[in-house]
Each structure stands twice: as structure tokens, then as C-alpha cells.
């Protein structure tokens, strides 16, 4: 069996990260597979050269299942080229500067981060009617505490152009 170049793994709770994984798969222009993190079994990751991991951010944290995956497969991930994309309500500038940069490093261990060839924030979306009642409640509480810093309106700032740009950069980085 020939090794495939890319494996796109994603964790999704409301579907946005999956949609982005599918767009990225289309944009890469190479054979790749998509899989939810929860469906990964022993021996799968080893078959790929590059692992792309997509995670959303919920309530300012990586989902526990995503953290568990990174820890469980850390030994194998350390032998691969890695790329991460993140979907969240913050802008890329907010995430990659100040608190945001430390926040990424808090969830991706330094040894795994050394293998990361590219990472990016590809936007985010939130539709209040799709959220669980507890997620809606936490947002409303946050809005009361942080006033104008928390948006509880529906929004979508995912961008096919950002996904396309990420795919182009990833292909360029991998070829070098």
C-alpha cells in the first residue's frame, strides 16, 4: 500500500471543523484522507507523511478529546510533519499575539510543536440555535461579566480564501 501524503484529522462538536477539513482536502490537490479524531485507531497515523489536525476552541480551551488524542498519539506524532488549523471566535491576530500565542502552546506541548510546519486560524462560526443549552448559558454569563468583549450573536467569519491560502502554504512548506 502506498503511503498517502496527507491525513486530515479533525474534532468537531457542531460541524464547522469538519466543513473546513473538507474544504482543505479539496484545496490540497493531493491524495489525502479525512477522519474524525475520535475514529483514529492504532496504526492509522503511521501510514501518512503529514498529519493536519483541525480543532475548534470552545470556551477558550481546546476540547478535552483533542487534548487526549494529542497525548495518546504523541509518540507517533513526534515522527511526523504536523500542521494545525484552529477555528475560534477570536481573530488570527488575537490568537497569535500575546495571550493567544501562549494559549496555543498551553495545549500543544513544546515537543509536538517543534514538528509543526504550519499553523493558522481559519476563522470560526457560531449559531446560537445550534449550541447546547449549557454553552448558551456560559456565553450569556460571560457576556454579563465581560460586557462588550463577548459576542453572543450568530456569526460566520470562516473563509474559503483562508483555507485556500493555508493549503498553498502547506504544499509549499512540504515541498521544501
List keywords for this structure.
five-stranded parallel sheet, 7 strands, Rossmann fold, 176 residues, 8 helices, alpha/beta, globular, two-stranded antiparallel sheet
Give structural notes.
This protein has 176 residues and is an alpha/beta fold. It has one domain (4-127, 155-175): Flavodoxin domain (Rossmann fold), CATH 3.40.50.360. 42% of the residues lie in helices and 22% in strands. The protein is built from eight helices and seven strands, in the order βαββααβαααββαβα. It has helices at 16-28, 64-72, 74-77, 92-96, 99-107, 110-113, 133-146, 160-175; strands at 4-10, 32-36, 48-56, 81-87, 116-121, 125-126, 155-156. The protein has a five-stranded parallel β-sheet with strand order 2-1-3-4-5, covered by helices on one side. Strands 6-7 form a two-stranded antiparallel ribbon. α1 (16-28) links the parallel β1 (4-10) and β2 (32-36). It is globular and about 45 Å long. The chain starts with a strand and ends with a helix. The mean pLDDT is 81.
- Count the helices. How many? 8
So, the CATH homologous superfamily? Flavodoxin domain
Structural class: alpha/beta
Low-confidence stretches: none
Arrangement of strands in the largest sheet:
2-1-3-4-5
At the first level of CATH, the class is Alpha Beta
**Shape verdict:** globular
Number of strands: 7
Roughly what percent helix?
40-55%
Measured between the Cα atoms of the first and last residue, the distance is 25 Å
Instruction: Write the H/E string, N to C.
Output: EHEEHHEHHHEEHEH
| Integer-rounded radius of gyration | 16 Å
